[in-house]
Amino acid sequence: MGESEQDSEFPRIIELNVGGRHFSTSLLTLTKNRETMLGAMFSGNYQVQRDKDGRYFVDADGDNFEHILRYLRFADLPPPDSMEKVYKDAVFFGLTELAEELERYPPIMSRIMKEKFRSRFTGYHEAFNEIICAASDSCNLAIKTPTSNVIVSVLARWMPPAAADFDVNHICSFDRFSGTKSTADVTIGPWDVDTFEDDYIRTLHQNLEERGFVVVYNVIGPCQYRCELADDSNIARFDECRRMFYRFTFHWARSLTAFK
Questions:
Q1: Mutual angle of helices 124-137 and 197-210, in 10-degree steps
Q2: Which residues pair with 133 in a beta bridge?
Q3: Which H or E run contains 114?
């Protein structure tokens, strides 16, 4: 029997090496559902890598796989403290029924709903990473109380200006007369969903806290740019930029202490 033929015919008892942990299970258990990754791997249509001892190698987390295997054998769900980790592997292995079962539990359901909400915002993940990078670049750990500020400008919905002379390419600033920096480190929006600037900022703040940052934010105010409207009345009226400015303040000493 040639090597390719041997590789396409699996024994009834399968010896596995999953991320360094060893398991023994039946071929029937692994191929219950041919639509899963495991079902495809052991269908006979693919060559599966072996380790030096001849065990079939699966590049995954061995501790999580213990729960995956129990589900395949007995339809047992993992304990609550392992559900989030096992959920990721269930998705990875294409175990749709297990993933759907786990999605009914609050921690995983909450995370999925948060991701769905965040995905409504154009460029959300890019903006989130920009804020972290900007905070890191301005951090000075040599001072007694290390903090850093990141100025974020947000515009939810673009509205065509009413004033003919309105400069749509103006540089937004929140205090043109101060001697300090008054432009944004991170610029966000506009986007095409019915949410407001503060919704976006609150979502970013919550996400940063979930990552372990100690951070607060406050409203600075609107962009100072405005353009006078032509009007026959004696009352001056202006078309104003609607972009809002916020300040995120990162408290690095407390953030670092939280990870000790």
A1: 60
A2: none
A3: helix 106-119
